[in-house]
Amino acid sequence: MAVNPNEDTDFNDALRQYGIIPPKEPTPTTPSPPSSPKLHDILDDLTPEELTELGQDITDEDLQRSIDAHRRQREAQERLHQKRARFGRVYPIGRDDYTREVTEASKVDEDDDDEEKGTGVICFLYKDGIPRSDRTFEHIRNLASRYPHSKFVSIVGNKCIADLPDSRIP
Prior knowledge:
Layout: H1 10-17, H2 39-44, H3 48-57, H4 61-84, E1 90-92, H5 98-104, E2 121-126, H6 131-146, E3 151-156, H7 157-160
Parallel strand pairs: 1-3, 2-3
């Protein structure tokens, strides 16, 4: 008589207990489905216009109040964000301006800044006529418009650092 070790019987359990047949492999657990997203997480992904549209379509008053509160909070954050946006472009500087525009400007805190970390200043060294420098300058301009809280300045490389070789300029 042949014994099927995969069968779930009392006889096979006794054989496993004495080590005659190998232990039964545990069945793999099935992963539980991911939890459904919370309302707050869904609302965070929506634009203010989408929040307004959603607020008009809802009939439940409690849900509508929470959507309106979230929309007002988001609009207040955007107003504050736009108010703090001080720069938004690349400022050309000279050697004499470096200390004032870079060193001292990085110590200035933004209005309503509780963390007092200062202003981020990015200094771009370039040289006219170098293709890689011109390409990088376009990227720097794009970044400056994207991150208006940070100050972007540009200076000709050998005016900032004396005898800076062209190979060290991006």
